[in-house]
Amino acid sequence: MKFKLLNPTVIRTAGVTAIAFVMTVTGARAQYKIDADAELIFNAGSGQLAPYYMSALNHGILSQSKGGLLKAGVFRQMDESKRFSYSFGAQFVTGMTSKADYDRYNVENGWSLNPQKPAAIWLQQLYGDIKYRSLFLSAGVKERGSLLVDNSLSTGDVIESGNARPIAQVRAGFIDYQNIPFTNGWLQITGQIAYGKFFQDNYIKDHFNYSWGNFNLGTLYHYKRCYFRTKPDAPFSATFGGQFACLFGGDTYTYYLGKESRYTSNRKNLKAFWQALIPLNNGIEGWYEGQHLGSWDIRFRYRIRSGAEFSAYVQNLWEDGSGMGKLNGWDGLWGFEYKAAQKGYVSAVVIEYLDFTNQSGPTNYNDHDYPGTNLTGYDITGCDNYYNNGYYNSYTNYGFAIGNPFSKEPIYNLDGSLTFNNNRVRGFHAAVKGNIIDNLDYRVMGGYRVSYGTYSSPALTPRRDTSFMAEAIYSVECVKGLKIKGQFALDHGELFGNTTAGCITVAYHGNLSLNFKK
């Protein structure tokens, strides 16, 4: 047996050793190429939690204002050129962070502070994927992002953004866009479907204030999407389709002034899984079981002769029929993107406008309030309450938004509530990235938003926020795979408070190549 090491890494796993042993014993001959990543993250700032842009779209890794973290993992990439291929990954995060003081209510003592921080170590990713022809099957906990928006510059996809920690799930679908027969390559399709389970029960019980509200333990997850795309090689291309997500199952606990006032055991049988896939009226006052939400997505892209691309896109978030029918005004994520043909001073630009202020329309009406009118027998109400639900958890994992985090996420609620308390929000966001000199890249992001609370709990005065982040990434030329990243971020206003922070990350990416010969 002969080993050849290229760019040795600091991480060697028992899994790699086991593969080598099995292949040696059986006399097989193969070459394994495995990627290894390690990051040391040090951050410090004012306030109790990290600024918005430092925390957002980071897969739920960084939340506290001060800390030192180690993120390390090994991965085998999928070879999409082969008919059959597979990949796997394992990654953990460990370290020490500061605590944040959340409010908690107790029947005997009333309100008190409840200091909380992330676990000393947690599993961030552990998955295995297989591919045959154009189809794939994935199982485990895996970081994912949006197929529609730029994951490094956008505020985030409204349904699956890569902002929260990944959810344990089984997912299947097309590996990429596939040509639709008889369209001569002018129309393509892609789609995925997934079922999963949350493992955030301890986080929920530790962070909830037990004053008023509900939470769901043992929650199940369902996701699916389908996109169509016109020929990507043409100067003009359009992408359109939709996403759908659902939280269901589990057990719901409702609390009032420190005491459990109601307990509901939700269905977890095969019928519940089927109704998450195809929602059916449960016969109780017209409600659909589970928390359902989705988006209609459209993206137009035009490529000029130089190779630069201009794109415009919209994601229409919906939670019921009014949103699906685009009756919620301008609600949604509206974006413009520029992508240069090659790396330069300005490699990409994203500008976005997000509006969640017209949930189910502006009108509330009950015919009993106005007897004798022509609208007798009809009630008109407007309270979609984006990302929240009266029976299930808000659309989060470990306090981070699974969708777009532009609405202040529950992890920032120091009052101990687990809902989006500022989802009636609108604002602007702009981001740019590029290359200053050889081996030195940058990214700058800024945004302004104003929140009016929620429809059920409106803010007495608007809550505003201005956020900013500047980032520089230096690739160390003498050590291949080594990068040093520095960040400065701030929040200013009533929504997040006035905070500033800095972060230094030392990251190493290496390749381990193992040749086995009998």
Topology:
Blueprint: H1 14-26, E1 30-45, H2 52-55, E2 67-76, E3 84-97, E4 100-106, E5 110-116, E6 121-132, E7 135-141, E8 168-174, E9 178-179, E10 187-197, H3 201-207, E11 212-217, E12 220-230, E13 236-248, E14 251-256, E15 259-265, H4 270-277, E16 291-303, E17 309-318, H5 321-324, E18 332-339, E19 348-355, E20 365-366, E21 379-380, E22 396-397, E23 400-401, E24 425-437, E25 440-453, E26 458-475, E27 482-493, E28 499-516
Antiparallel strand pairs: 1-2, 1-28, 2-3, 3-6, 4-5, 6-7, 7-8, 8-10, 9-10, 10-12, 11-14, 12-13, 13-16, 14-15, 16-17, 17-18, 18-19, 19-24, 20-21, 22-23, 24-25, 25-26, 26-27, 27-28
Task: Give a short summary of the structure.
The chain has 518 residues and is mainly β. Helices cover 7% and strands 50% of the residues.
Q: What is the subunit arrangement here?
A: single chain
Question: What is the global morphology?
Answer: globular
Major sheet attributes: 18 strands, antiparallel, barrel
Question: Helix tally?
Answer: 5
**Percent in helix:** under 10%
Tell me the span between the first and last alpha carbons: 5 Å
If you average the pLDDT, what whole number results?
A: 89
Rg, please?
A: 24 Å
Structural class call reads mainly beta
**Which blocks of ≥5 consecutive residues have pLDDT under 50?**
1-28
Tell me the total number of β-strands.
28
> Strand percentage, roughly?
over 45%
How would you characterize the overall build of this protein?
The chain has helices at 14-26, 52-55, 201-207, 270-277, 321-324; strands at residues 30-45, 67-76, 84-97, 100-106, 110-116, 121-132, 135-141, 168-174, 178-179, 187-197, 212-217, 220-230, 236-248, 251-256, 259-265, 291-303, 309-318, 332-339, 348-355, 365-366, 379-380, 396-397, 400-401, 425-437, 440-453, 458-475, 482-493, 499-516. It is mostly beta strands and 518 residues long. The strands form five sheets. The chain has an 18-stranded antiparallel beta barrel. Strands 11-14-15 form a three-stranded antiparallel β-sheet, covered by helices on one side. Strand 2 (67-76) and strand 3 form a beta hairpin. 36% of the residues are buried.
